[in-house]
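Q: Structure tokens for this one, please.
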Amino acid sequence: MARLVRRGLRFPMTVALTVIAAAVAGCATAPSGGPPRLAPGGNSQAQAYVQPLPPPGPTNSPIWTPQNVVLGFLHASASYAFDPAAARQYLAPELRRSWHPGHGVAVVGAPSVSPVPNSNPKENLGSGQSAQVEVHLTGQQLATVSQSGQYQYAPGNVNIHFLLAKNTNGVWLIEQLPPQQTLMLTESDFEEVYQPRNLFFFAPAPGSELPSVLVPVPVYAPLQSANSALNTDLATGLVNGLLKGQGGWLSGATYSAFPTGTRLLKRVTITGKTAQVDLGGTAAHAPSQQVGLMADQLAKTLGDGSYALPLANLVQLSINGRVQDTIAAPDLVPTVPSGPVELITGMSSVGELPGQPGHGDKVQQRLSQDQIGPAKVTAVAASPSSDHPPQLAVAVQNPAGGCVVEEQPGGQGASKSYPLAGSDVPCASLSYDANGNLWAAAGSGVWVLSPGHSPTKVDLSAIQPTDKILALRMAPDAVRAALLVYTPGAGSRLLLAAAQVQGGNVTFVQPVTLGTTGLTDPTAISWYDGYHLAVLATEGIYSVPLTTGAGQQPAPQLITPLPIGVQTLTLTTDGKELVVGTMQGTSQGVSAEQASAPGSWSFVTSGEDPVYPG
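A: Here is the predicted structure, written as tokens:
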């Protein structure tokens, strides 16, 4: 359970102002998110949080200059969720009544304040005020957080003005704020009062089947109470987030079991690690199967420990005061598939290694040139699901230009060839999802091959047309796509996008940038689990959380340094084993190690582009 404690006693005024200046001005210049560190693995990455104490309000002391009042206001705004009066005490009485920030949060790094040059204080303003001055705040916006908790990397410049006036007691107060109704927080304050969490929604189920796969939607939730030892405020906020709907980048690609009009009748309570949730409204008319799905969403959301400690071990769901179900968090987030490792063994041949490859393992031939033909293989993938006939797919260069995908049922028998219409370069990446769909990336385009259908080009209008897709990996839930893209002049970056299917059209909607603080030149990606990507970068292989954006919590963590003496080109993992493609001189090879034994790489065999199923 997350630890919430008040931070000491109130400071004397001089000390308090020093703390304000350091927290708002100085600390914001620290590196975003902290340096990468060795990943401990599992739920030990969950964090405990300390609730900050709001600063004291301004007085007529000379220390409380207009600049310090603005800095204090920003620092006090971090406590707005549980103590709005802390920030309002910096405002003039008229403004206190009208200020109701409700349009999300802007996260700002390295803010600085200064009086506006040549702004002459005005005397005798009436209403008991005696002077007025303008203060200019500048800085760099890092991100925005929507009302639903969606964190979006949004770099830009902040350039705003505050108007302050002295009251009859000689205290500087803010009488005019910037027009936008957005709460502005510094990066350091945001990290102290907002906690990364997941809301869980269902992936679409085929046909009339009941949904059985939950998809995590990362959000940031404010720690709303300074003495909430049972985390009831945080739990209540998360449940309300579920009831309001998905929001953010996964909207339209997932859905909720809660019928529109469902209400939370009272605050969530947590007793003995059991959360009591009482719903009303339209939930009262839901059939029993739907009630069970609602309980699944609630239990997984309140029992999740991916980025922070779980709030509850059990959830007791009541509707209009009548208990319906008491369950633990269901295991409905698919794991990363394991299985044999496929690899390219020659210009037109594919082989297979065991799922835990080691030095000296022999490569079993899967596809030969007789089956593939004389074209060069550029990518390989194997289907992960036992619910479909096992498939092995290869991408080959089209002699006429572009990419051709060949699928081999079980890696044997007759193959089917699918030229990707509109592709003008070879495929760089293939990836199967759990529903048996094969996704192919070539240049700036993506195609999907559904079982029994011809390739469909994916609508990528939400992604920059200049982006070259270096790698595409579908999550085990078949909803989320991780993309490594390269933009000329900007380098490589990671994107998350939702795969939305409507009729015969497939779209990657609302892509978000994934934070890679401390990583240089990411060159390969693989799903590490349902909540993290494994990313190959110059410094090593990292576990990167899906909380998105620069300065996100928790920061990327180093899993292992790279093999020594070779150039590491590609990466694949099943969450336990790490397998990389390497090059030494002109020779390409495969090396492997256990994720739990960092630095213990062993050379396995010659070959290139090793991949686990998926």
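A few notes: The CA atoms of residues 591 and 603 lie 4 Å apart. Residues 1-50, 123-129, 225-230 have pLDDT under 50 and may be disordered.
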